[in-house]
Amino acid sequence: MTDTPPCGTPTDGGSSAPSEHPAPERLYQLLVESIQDYAIFALDRTGRVVTWSAGAARLKGYARTEIIGRHFSVFYPPEDVAAGKPERELEEAVRTGRVEDQGWRVRKDGTRFWASVVITALYDEMGTLVGFAKVTRDLTLQRNETEALRESEARFRLLVESVRDYAIFLLDPEGHVATWNAGAERIKGYHAEEIIGRHFSVFYPAERVAERFPQYELEVAAREGRFEDEGWRIRKDGSRFWANVVITALRNSTGELVGFAKVTRDLTERRAAEEQARRLAAEQAARSEAERRGAELQLLSEQLEEQAIELEHQREEAQTLSEELEQANDQLQRALVEANDARRSAEAEAARAAEASRAKSDFLATMSHELRTPLNAIAGYTQLIDMGLRGPVTSAQHEDLERILRSQTHLTSLINEVLSYARLESGAITYAVRPTPVTAAAENAEAIVEPQRAAKEIDLDVQLPHGEGAPPIQVLADQDKLQQILINLLSNAVKFTPKGGRIVLELLTEPERPGMALIRVSDTGIGIPADKLQAIFEPFVQVGRSLNSPGEGTGLGLAISRELARGMGGDLTVESREGRGSVFTLTLPLAV
Ligand code: ADP
After folding, report:
1. Rounded CA gap, 248 and 504, in Å?
2. Cα of 451 to ligand 1 centre, how many Å?
3. Most buried one in 41, 164, 182, 465, CB count within 10 A?
4. What is the pLDDT of residue 92?
């Protein structure tokens, strides 16, 4: 080891003679050679490279042949070289035996890396400086990590310091304030220099301090890692604020407690806002409830009012109704009284009428009888004289006697008809209705008008269908009444038909009037004015006859005839044309 430093022998790739047990120096050389992560090489006393290792080649980029003999200052950045740093380091190594440095170094390709360098001065046994051993390590990666950590810490500190809404600070394990941020200053009112080093119990109200609550918080945080609390805290000026506090225990990698992080928030405003909100909500709820109640009450009162109005209406209606009922009742009562009165007076009237009618009938019957007796006497004595039983009768006297007899006859028939009509009116007539052949009544009537017909040379044609073997048509009638009607119709026809005229009496049926027989009396006489066609059926109506011109007839014949026809379930109608003649139709039910 005289001229050769321990690791100074140029390595030639192990070309020395192999041996099963190489010498320790050789082993040492191999060791240095093989280390990849460190550049380990030797410099001579002037700083020139004399050995090179695989690690050095890898780290710095130079091959052995390129670097051996060159000054080690090539590994330094130009500014360091210019500042004489390489020489200074060697001098220091000579002076102190060893120099350590961290700094930028330069690779062959010009790139830099952060290096940890140890330079050791090498001496021989005589104490003569023979050179330097240099061990270089690339710390770039490590440095980067450290730098990143440092930066992130700086950023974090900056961040924490600039946070204004939270007081974020560190306590040492005993609870003394170690750091302070803007938020802490803002919330608690202390400047950093005023508070750092003081115990954090200054932030607590006296009673809590007395309870040792701050210590309790730290104990819990230390035990459980974290403690959170909300409560009153004190500012520097003594005022209170409502705070949310989180205390976190900080431990190092070995688990040793190094302090606490404390984050405090001022919740005074939030609490006030919350209370305000709560109060508002409560007020709102109370108001809503009151309004709801009010509305309910309002509704209820409206309903009550409506019901009251309704009841009032109903009461009024009931009142009105009862008044109306009363009125109606009164009216009914009155009407009932009136009706009773009316009924009574009607009954009385009817009784009176019946009485009067009966009296009239009685009177007429008596009168007729009383009149007929002297009339019969008149007729008898007139005929006696006319027959010359009381002495000779001149022709003039004879004519007079005839006039007396005619008047007597007329008066008798007049009285008979008046009597007959009176009995009809009073309902005293009874009908003996039975199937009756028209033939007999027609023949009797024909016989009765025969003298007048013959005198006026009127042609009378009676057409009653009676075919051989065929039974004669029968009607439901009272034979005497039927005969009385036919006499009236035929005598009128003769009376109102001029000389030489023609009368037809026929019996027929018509399909449109089933169940009825039609007995028709037609004449070619003077006819009846249209406006008198109904009047002639009224009693005492005679066309063209005034009270000053009394003549034949009573004006009762047609009135009686129609009453009789209707009394037997039939009718009597007329059709006529003035100057041409008239047609009277008597209908009666057919007897089947
Ligand atoms: P009277 O024949 O006794 O006057 P009626 O009641 O029988 O009473 O007749 C009433 C009137 O009807 C007659 O006065 C006459 O004017 C009219 N009259 C009745 N029958 C005929 C007839 N066949 N032709 C024209 N006029 C008639």
Report:
1. 151
2. 19
3. 41
4. 94
